[in-house]
Design the sequence.
């Protein structure tokens, strides 16, 4: 991988912040966008901006074709069985809410149980809490060990005939832990429970093969995969999607409407009410093409090397403690610095041109588990370099110096 050449594709990385070259290490929050993605947006709005699925004119036909091509790209990217199983939504949060509101409200009842884990993002906690309040179901939580890994034996103990759904994150946005989602799915299926995997922090870092995992639903957000914000994907097994009612009503999700009865459209359209996010969906296709041109295996190999280098540079810093030491983890390094508040860490590092994330990372239960109010997080992407890691290490030492 020619990182120097790759970086030329990302115009935002060329700027200076506070007079210093930008070092962007907040990729778990959102990734930067390559010119290929930006240009696809410009091309759509400049050349064929039009609504889809409803026009006979040339622009509408072209917009429809480009939009639907992305569904095929996503299917291949995830190795999903069928194109019609790919649903476009705003992001992972909306995907999980769709499953909770459609599948959950249809099939769950009082006494049923949902299992999530202690490392979940709030978007994979709150929708299930709402569903439990509405149905009388109960929420169970898989605990973490001190390394930030799921305790699989405890998970096995939670499973029972009452379990109807297991929803876990593929890779943690706070701890970096990569969960054994195939094993988790296999165990859940022994009890005929459905499994949803939150892939928001996975698809951009390593190869995801839905058929190999064997899960029932998989969700991810485009903006963490170098695509724009406001576009994401829910994949679901055809036989499940066919049994689920629409969760929103409007145009495009119907076959016919009378005042007496509405007949819904086929999947995936019955879950895509109204004019969709056409431009950003097409740009998601450009982002997938871009990632494929580099090779997800190459990305995984390089990011792993970069992460190992980060540990070599950061861990010897006196006063720094890494939170999340799983044996298998992706490109996230969350840490605390003795008594220095993460907000101060982030502020001083920003003055050095280095963008990191500080706070609870939308994982307050993780903060509680590790006894901290907040953390500082460095998260990597394939356009980052070892030199940037060196600059981040120097900035962390400067933070310590300021507060010494």
Sequence:
């Amino acid at each position: 991988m020619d990182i120097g050449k790759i970086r030329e594709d990302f115009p935002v990385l060329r700027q200076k912040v506070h007079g210093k070259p930008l070092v962007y290490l907040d990729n778990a929050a959102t990734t930067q966008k390559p010119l290929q993605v930006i240009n696809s947006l410009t091309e759509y709005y400049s050349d064929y901006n039009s609504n889809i699925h409803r026009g006979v004119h040339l622009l509408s036909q072209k917009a429809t074709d480009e939009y639907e091509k992305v569904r095929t790209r996503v299917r291949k990217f995830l190795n999903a069985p069928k194109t019609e199983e790919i649903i476009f939504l705003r992001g992972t949060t909306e995907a999980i809410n769709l499953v909770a509101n459609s599948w959950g409200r249809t099939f769950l009842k009082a006494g049923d149980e949902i299992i999530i884990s202690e490392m979940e993002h709030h978007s994979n906690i709150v929708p299930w809490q709402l569903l439990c309040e509405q149905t009388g179901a109960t929420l169970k939580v898989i605990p973490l060990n001190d390394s930030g890994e799921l305790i699989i034996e405890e998970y096995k103990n939670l499973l029972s005939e009452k379990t109807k759904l297991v929803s876990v994150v593929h890779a943690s946005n706070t701890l970096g832990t990569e969960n054994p989602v195939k094993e988790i799915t296999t165990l859940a299926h022994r009890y005929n429970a459905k499994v949803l995997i939150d892939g928001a922090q996975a698809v951009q870092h390593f190869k995801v093969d839905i058929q190999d995992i064997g899960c029932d639903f998989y969700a991810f957000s485009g903006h963490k995969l170098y695509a724009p914000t406001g576009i994401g994907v829910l994949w679901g097994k055809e036989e499940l999607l066919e049994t689920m009612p629409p969760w929103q009503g409007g145009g495009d999700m119907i076959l016919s409407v009378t005042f007496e009865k509405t007949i819904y459209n086929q999947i995936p359209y019955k879950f895509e009410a109204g004019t969709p996010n056409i431009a950003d969906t097409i740009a998601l296709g450009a982002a997938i093409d871009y990632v494929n041109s580099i090779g997800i295996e190459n990305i995984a190999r390089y990011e792993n090397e970069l992460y190992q280098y980060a540990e070599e540079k950061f861990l010897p810093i006196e006063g720094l403690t890494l939170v999340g030491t799983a044996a298998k983890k992706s490109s996230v390094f969350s840490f605390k610095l003795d008594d220095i508040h993460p907000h101060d860490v982030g502020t001083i590092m920003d003055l050095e041109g280095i963008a990191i994330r500080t706070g609870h990372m939308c994982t307050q239960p993780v903060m509680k588990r590790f006894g901290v109010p907040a953390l500082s997080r460095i998260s990597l992407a394939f356009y980052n370099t070892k030199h940037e890691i060196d600059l981040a290490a120097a900035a962390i030492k400067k933070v310590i110096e300021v507060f010494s």
Remarks:
- The mean pLDDT is 96.
